[in-house]
Automatic annotation (TrEMBL):
<dbReference type="InterPro" id="IPR006121">
    <property type="entry name" value="HMA_dom"/>
</dbReference>
<protein>
    <submittedName>
        <fullName>Cation transporter</fullName>
    </submittedName>
</protein>
<dbReference type="Pfam" id="PF00403">
    <property type="entry name" value="HMA"/>
</dbReference>
<dbReference type="GO" id="GO:0046872">
    <property type="term" value="F:metal ion binding"/>
</dbReference>
<keyword id="KW-0479">Metal-binding</keyword>
<dbReference type="InterPro" id="IPR036163">
    <property type="entry name" value="HMA_dom_sf"/>
</dbReference>
<dbReference type="InterPro" id="IPR017969">
    <property type="entry name" value="Heavy-metal-associated_CS"/>
</dbReference>
<feature type="domain" description="HMA">
    <location>
        <begin position="1"/>
        <end position="69"/>
    </location>
</feature>
Length: 73
């Protein structure tokens, strides 16, 4: 399953790389990538783990960028 998430207000390339790296380490995640120009996070993960992955991804984003708004598309 593939999910796109908008990270409104993300403008730090270093933070985006850290977020992407941490999400890619999560159990069930096949791939995660951030397009800094569009501020979109794309996560590919196992269907049964997607909800947990999204919740954990939200926490990871808040850890590095507390002012970024996490919007599931």
């Amino acid at each position: 399953m593939k999910k796109k998430i908008i990270l409104e207000g993300l403008d730090c390339a270093n933070c985006a790389a850290k977020i992407e790296n941490d999400i890619n380490k999560l159990t069930g995640v096949e791939s995660a990538s951030i397009n800094l120009m569009t501020t979109k996070l794309t996560i590919e993960a196992e269907d049964d783990k997607m909800q947990d992955v999204i919740e954990t991804a939200r926490k990871i984003v808040n850890k590095y960028e507390p002012d970024v708004i996490f919007k599931t598309a």
